[in-house]
Amino acid sequence: MSESDQTAPVVRGGRERVPGGPVRELLAPRETALGGSTVVRRLLPNLGRRMVGAWCFVDHYGPDDIADEPGMQVPPHPHIGLQTVSWLHEGEVLHRDSLGSLQTVRPYELGLMTSGRAISHSEESPREHARLLHGAQLWVALPDAHRHTAPAFEHHADLPEVTTAGLHGTVILGSLDGARSPGTVHTPLVGVDLTLREGGSARLPLEPDFEYAVLTMSGLTEVDGVRLEPGSMLYLGSGRRELPLRALADGSLLLLGGEPFEEKLVMWWNFVGRTGEEIARARTDWMSGDRFGAVHGYDGPPVPAPQLPVTPLKARGRLG
């Protein structure tokens, strides 16, 4: 998915601004249109917080009735320095990329693309698609040691699960309570889809060295005593060994966490880099048809890159 409306460059990362203990910081979403009839609620980057571990971008969309709509239509666009995570509760997304990958991602299946040094891809609802579309698109920043790796795409239809009284979890990335996802990760992190039934409660084990946030996908839930409605995200800080959860109605959550990301990085449009010069070079390469390859089969032209800002990049840290 493309961060096509965000063209103001910012620097993110640096663990010195991570709370040393638990917090309850509610992050308000920002709505933006993205491809076809899809409107997303952007939770990261946020005016109050820009990263959670290596997670640097979170969009939540739906549930949308697309029975008479084209649904998601995101034309070919480029990426460097990150991984994209496609996660669905309802509907299907057809992924194409410049490696030649062609994969339909369905609910509770992991679509994981590692851009490394350069890749381009498109995402669309298939021509014949389900009535509803509901999911999340997330980015993971790659650390310096891995950000120039060869691009790759993974699809995992069978993911490990954890179950306790009142709670069911699917481990998307990383591990939880002994269950480990097959998805490739390059920093210590975790992503888990959690389902709770009305009236159910649980205490979820956490890593105290990780910082965490929880996104409510559906229903009405209470996380560490804070009531969350769909599309809202609660930042939890670090220093926690467990997290109390309660369902006020049938609900589902995304738990995102990881070791605070040490490196400062520049995010602009669909690129994650370290300097303005690197970002400018990636833009030039995309516009000239170099480096990123071609996505074949998508019915439409690729997305042109926006103009770079005239002001130099300025470090703003992980908060701002």
UniProtKB/TrEMBL annotation:
Species name: Kitasatospora herbaricolor
Protein's name according to its UniProt entry: Pirin family protein
Domain spans labelled Pirin N-terminal: 44-140
Positions of the UniProt region annotated as Disordered: 1-23, 301-320
SUPFAM superfamilies: RmlC-like cupins
Source species, domain of life: Bacteria
PANTHER family xrefs: PIRIN, PIRIN-RELATED
Alphabetical list of CDD domains matching this protein: cupin_pirin_C
Ranges where the Pirin C-terminal domain occurs: 192-291
Family: Belongs to the pirin family.
Pfam family, one: Pirin
Taxonomic path: Bacteria, Bacillati, Actinomycetota, Actinomycetes, Kitasatosporales
